[in-house]
Amino acid sequence: MAKQRSNFVCQSCGAVTTRWQGRCDACGEWNSIVEELVDSGIGAGPKAAKSGGRPTNLLPLAGETESAARVVTGIAELDRVTGGGFVKGSALLVGGDPGIGKSTLLLQSAAALANQGKRVIYVSGEEAVAQVRLRAQRLGLGEAGVLLAAETNVEIILATLESGPPPDLVIIDSIQTLWTDRVESAPGTVTQVRTSAQALTRLAKKTGAAVVLVGHVTKDGQIAGPRVVEHMVDAVLYFEGDSSHTFRILRGVKNRYGATDEIGVFAMTERGLEQVANPSALFLDQRDEDAAGSAVFAGMEGTRPLLIEIQALVAPSPLGTPRRAVVGWDSSRLSMVLAVLETRCGVRIGANDIYLNVAGGLKITEPAADLAVAAALISSLTGAPLPKEAVYFGEISLAGGVRPVAHSGLRLREAQKLGFQSVMTGRVNSVDKTSGFDISEFSQLSEMVGRIAANGKKPVAEPEGW
């Protein structure tokens, strides 16, 4: 007889220990370790394999390879992030905050494929079939030929999917609600999530169906459960947004069949999620052009250029330790830009409260935003509004230099398309320069600081080399 023993598994990272402890040694999370029963002893686990194995065929690296067959939804922003549509036989993981619109987007994509004659199955583990129908009717999708099921047992789901014609798309909402008889633990635990995801991924490879798994996120915004699930699937998409804004960002962070860091922009309306054809115009829609501390950053998200407003406020601090509040950017990078302005440019800014915001709720990780942030800070400090028709991009080095960035041509063309006439940046290759566009190239940050401060209303210390 197989006997049962206990393992203690961290629900955040999946690390296994032999006893309970308050803090996980692997990831540092508190109160994340849960006891799970594991079979052991004679007869436990899968049957012993036969002695010896059959050899497999070894193929050369060179050779013809067919392109992956895709299921195109017709929703351009979703197809853009996935690399041209869902790949047959692939597994995707979609994460996002509760109520952000994950189920709405997937239901819309399911209805779009069903209207094309595809066989689409939507399995909900959190809602009853009646609730899914009500949401579909509210979105105007009640007549779509999507097949629904409300089930959480993995064995029943697999048997249902294998009993009929092979589906083109299977949506599981969500992976944390599933459970399997093969594991003695509660739904949502690390072992259950990992085993359920493995079974569904194996189904995708076997039947050729595209399987989409919806995942919950933690308070840090990461997909809950073991990180091994993200390694098992072929693509990981994050659905981002702010409840105070109408738009949503679908961001690809892993894609074996397309580019990573690609984004799709949607707007939440009464009829569901609608595509945004021109995201740059959306992010600059309510920009105050005459306000000091506002700079337009020409950034890149994947292969898409975007114009984004950077807002900065520099205010005298009544506290001994000035405040640093950052929304949508890396706070450590802000500290670096402030240190360069103080040390290399001689700007007295460190004793002030600093507030930095990326307008619209978008999150930026690109180092090319350094120059736009520095321009917004100097503009707010001196009270000098920046030129309305200018955009900024460039990476700042610790020595005070402005380094060139990639894809300058795409950034310049996007700025010119929206009516901007000049740019302040580092060195730009001659092939990227756009005719009729005023390009100001700076090798040192102090040069740009001097130009902005010359029109300011408040004095700043003169940087070296003015």
UniProtKB/TrEMBL annotation:
It comes from Devosia crocina. DNA-dependent ATPase involved in processing of recombination intermediates, plays a role in repairing DNA breaks. Stimulates the branch migration of RecA-mediated strand transfer reactions, allowing the 3' invading strand to extend heteroduplex DNA faster. Binds ssDNA in the presence of ADP but not other nucleotides, has ATPase activity that is stimulated by ssDNA and various branched DNA structures, but inhibited by SSB. Does not have RecA's homology-searching function. Plays a role in repairing double-strand DNA breaks, probably involving stabilizing or processing branched DNA or blocked replication forks. Residues 353-466 are annotated as: Lon-protease-like. Pfam families: AAA_25 (PF13481), ChlI (PF13541), Zn_ribbon_LapB (PF18073). Gene3D superfamilies: 3.30.230.10, P-loop containing nucleotide triphosphate hydrolases. Residues 67-217 form the RecA family profile domain. GO terms for cellular component: cytosol. This is DNA repair protein RadA. A motif (RadA KNRFG motif) lies at residues 254-258. NCBIfam families: sms (TIGR00416). Keywords: ATP-binding, DNA damage, DNA repair, DNA-binding, Hydrolase, Metal-binding, Nucleotide-binding, Stress response, Zinc, Zinc-finger. One of its GO terms (molecular function) is hydrolase activity.
